[in-house]
């Protein structure tokens, strides 16, 4: 098995005080090594307006919806997150395509998956981060497939 095929980036959140900008750094991990991280599922939504976070010391633009999810995760003391918009180089079509093909494995290997439902008044959604139990391993057992195949 080619280990490089299973490399992904994880966002390592730096702790911060409520109301301060999100600061983080990216770490490359291999799914075959059993990395610990939380996958976050969220609505990409309207690409505008955007806001900035600091990634590897550089101002990085992202949607307000994802920034609010990261603020909530930081407040929950979550340290390692997989958030596609930041963890995948969106200007590299080849990387984006490879990473999309790994989505099943990413969500299967994640320690937990959280779904960001948004803030109150956002299309009627209540402000919430919902923890979803991993279902992929059970589905894989039923279908007889290996998660990392």
From TrEMBL:
<feature type="domain" description="Heterokaryon incompatibility">
    <location>
        <begin position="37"/>
        <end position="132"/>
    </location>
</feature>
<protein>
    <recommendedName>
        <fullName>Heterokaryon incompatibility domain-containing protein</fullName>
    </recommendedName>
</protein>
<dbReference type="Pfam" id="PF06985">
    <property type="entry name" value="HET"/>
</dbReference>
<dbReference type="InterPro" id="IPR052895">
    <property type="entry name" value="HetReg/Transcr_Mod"/>
</dbReference>
<dbReference type="InterPro" id="IPR010730">
    <property type="entry name" value="HET"/>
</dbReference>
